[in-house]
Amino acid sequence: MQEMDIPSHIIRWSASFLKGLQAKVRVNSKSSPLVLFHRGVPQGTVLGPLMFIIAMNALSKRLSQVPLLFHVFFADDLTP
């Protein structure tokens, strides 16, 4: 995000938003213990597609530096 000149307050907010995410699975009336996530973006969040684009842009820049390597990214998400 820094390489994209995104303001530092937005970078800090994004990091704070993603820190300490946890979830549990519920089947019928039983729940699993809480699981702490160290990576990823919560499913269904409005920021998910944007954060994916930011991550893929950084990866694309690095791959572009590899000689004789051609790459294309494709994402198909029809979820409303």
Automatic annotation (TrEMBL):
What is the name of this protein? Tbingi protein
Q: What is the lineage of its organism?
A: Eukaryota, Discoba, Euglenozoa, Kinetoplastea, Metakinetoplastina
InterPro entries in UniProt: RT_dom
Q: Which organism is it from?
A: Trypanosoma theileri
What sequence ranges are listed for the domain Reverse transcriptase?
Answer: 1-80
Domain of life per record:
Eukaryota
